Structures are given as C-alpha cells and as structure tokens.
What does this fold into?
Amino acid sequence: MTVYALETLFPREIEARLAENPILVLPFGTIEWHSHHLPVGLDGIVGERLSREIAERADAVLAPTSYWAVGGVPFPHTLNLPIALVEPLIETVFEQFAGMGFKVVVGFTGHFGLEQTLALKRAALAVMRRSEATILPLTEYDPVTDLYTGDHAGIGEASLLWAERPDLVRLDAVAASEKLDGVIGEDPRGRASLEYGQQLAKAIGERSADCARRMLAEIGTPRRALFLDALEAAVDALELTQTLRSKLPKSSVPPIATADYLAHCAAFVAGDYERATDLARGKAASLRAIAG
It folds into this structure.
C-alpha cells in the first residue's frame, strides 16, 4: 500500500490528497526509560509504525513523528516536559493541520501516561469546538482494549516493538533472576512475542482506520456532536484523575484504565458515542465520590 509521507509531498500532491481523502495521521512519542531491555525511543518508534499502519489502511497522509510529549517515568534518560508547554503545542498543530484542509486528523500517541492522554484529548476537544474538522485522539490501547490495556516496557510494548524492530528487543539484557526496573505491567520475558505484536498492530491499524473513515463521513451530521459529548466526558474523567493524584497518594486513586474507561474506549472507537459518554460519566462519578 502507498504511504503518503507528508514531508515528501509537493504542494500539488497535498492538494490532490485533500481533494480525494482529507485524513492525516500524526504520531506522538517521547524519549523515556523503558528499562534495560528496550530503547528510550520506543514510544515514537511504535507510534510511527502503528500510525503508518493506520494511514495505509485509511489511504491517509502520514505526518512526521513528534517526540515532544508530556511527562515520563522517574528514571534516567527520560524527557519530562510539562503539560503547560506541550498541550498548547499539540492544540496549535491540530488547528493548523485543520486549517490546511485536513478534515480528520488522527492524533495517535505511543506515549500514554495520564498527562499526555489528557493533553491530547483536551487539545482535540478545544480545536473541534472552533473548527469544522474532526480530531481523533487515540492512545495505543484505545482501539484494542479487548486485546491490550496498555503497559510500560511490558508484554504489550515489547511485542509491538518486536513486530517493527526485533533488533531493538533485548529480553536477555538482565538475568531472569533479576528484576526489570521500571516495568509497569507484567514482565515480558518469556511472554512477549512477535506474533502478539503483529496481532495488535493489525487490529490497531484496522480499527483506527475504520474509525477515521467513519468520522470523515460524519462531518456535518448530528453524530459529530455526539462524538464531542463522548470526548468531553472522557476529558472530564481524566481531569478528575489528575486532580485526585495531585491531592492523594497515587495508590489511592484508580488508574486510567478501569473497566468503565476501557469500555468507554471500545464504544468510542466503535462509534457508539452515547454509550461511550455514559461510561466516561460513570467513571467521573466514581472519582467524584472518592474526592468527597
């Protein structure tokens, strides 16, 4: 399949893509510790690979990968940029791509901590409130919550990188008897696989591309307003999570990926916006109960 890499296109080629299929896919990653068995640029490498998969299946333009994202784990060799710096940048980029004529912009992030997820989704919401374009903000696991719910340097990330750059997966870097520092999720040694990575990449590409194409067809219809409601409810739940984390020990605050939030993601990508809204509002209500 053809990859329309934005940075290689000439003006007439961009105009042709805008006339035929005005969808852009924009990958996000970062520079971040991924223990001793994976490289610090994993999020961007995987984000670009998956975005290419989406772009090919949606016949969309693929933008260059941005490695400037919010936050990071408290380990060496990690960029930890503040949300107040990065979110306005994401919002401006979304707005300017919409101004170029792209009617659907898929913001796909391979780096999906709370603050990056919030920044991406809130920036998309802000731009859509003042633009006719649709911004589809997706984390790596949003389209595949039945297969993968996100991890950090665990089975999922190791498998996804394996499917793209097997030379960068070094599961024998630390003896099996020793702990892999910085892994959030299950230890990938003996459990990550090329096959699982390929399965995830295919499902993420197919489902995200279907979602982007559907959203292009929904522009100018009442369904776009339902999409905005669902995204707004998700942003509310993410903001409440961020607020609680600032006041309480992290162990006292539910993670992002609770059952209701994961069900919200699945409904959102499937186009069941009313259910997605209800599920995100349910998560927000449970967080407000914790806040008292």
In short: Residues 221-292 form one domain. The first helix runs from residue 11 to 20.
